[in-house]
Specification:
Elements: H1 7-18, E1 32-38, H2 45-55, E2 61-67, H3 83-95, E3 105-108, E4 112-115, H4 119-128, E5 138-141, E6 144-147, E7 154-161, E8 165-168, E9 178-181, E10 184-193, E11 199-202, E12 212-218, E13 225-230
Parallel strand pairs: 1-2
Antiparallel strand pairs: 1-3, 3-4, 5-6, 6-11, 7-10, 7-12, 8-9, 12-13
Length: 231
């Protein structure tokens, strides 16, 4: 008896050899964290901001805009900038073995970065930096969050404004423009560091109404993001 294997049979064989499909983080429970570091005083940032706005509505992505402060001396003080946001970017620079920071920078899942205005490279990085769904679990309930065992990880509370806000820029490189902002981070709080056992952390009240909460479990300063959840 003879047998024939057509294109469909070859596909079945290839799938069997490849094994089960890898679990991806692209779902609501395991969002990919996309962090844009930008400034209202940076003329290269609006295209990167447009990329973040395009990602902000995706349920499988947690898009966060961190407004840094080192452009403030060039004619325009960023209306949302805070030194701790700049320091978060510097933590990534040290983790990536760089001496300097730059804008617009997008960091994906705390693993790798790209110049934020390059959408094709950003899309490839989002796929490549997918962390899967095997990290610690996060349960947000009311004024507390519970994190499963994650030895030595930092548990961070991020509060951001989901509304689209238009900001007129009077001076600096973007003077005369009105820049749209969404998912701008307004608060960053270190809730604690895990000790290898499940932990429960209380959430402080928000400083202003309308902010949404997200929790990141991150492996050290500027390390990979192990898990993320939002309310």
């Amino acid at each position: 008896m003879t047998s024939r294997s057509g294109p469909r049979g070859c596909l079945v064989i290839l799938l069997a050899l490849a094994g089960p499909p890898r679990a991806l983080a692209a779902d609501v429970a395991h969002p990919t964290v996309v962090e844009l570091f930008q400034s209202q005083g940076c003329s290269s940032c609006p295209p990167a901001n447009a990329n973040l706005l395009a990602l902000a509505s995706r349920p499988d992505v947690l898009a966060l805009s961190w407004q840094v402060t080192y452009w403030d001396h060039l004619g325009w003080t960023d209306t949302f900038g805070k030194p701790e946001f700049t320091e978060r970017q510097r933590d990534y620079a040290r983790a990536f073995h760089r001496d300097q920071v730059f804008t617009p920078e997008i960091v994906v899942n705390g693993q790798a970065d790209v110049v934020g205005n390059r959408r094709d490279e950003l899309d490839r990085l989002i796929s490549r930096a997918d962390r899967g769904n095997e990290g610690p679990s996060i349960a947000l309930a009311g004024s507390a969050v519970t994190v499963s065992a994650a030895p030595g990880a930092r548990v961070l509370l991020v509060r951001y404004d989901p509304a689209l806000v238009q900001v007129p820029i009077a001076r600096g490189e973007n003077g005369g423009l009105t820049l749209p902002h969404r998912n701008v981070v307004r608060e960053l709080v270190l809730l604690g560091v895990t000790d290898g056992q499940p932990g429960r952390f209380r959430l402080p009240p928000a400083s202003r109404p309308g902010l949404r909460s997200a929790v990141l479990v991150q492996a050290g300063l500027g390390g990979p993001i192990l898990a993320a959840a939002r309310e």
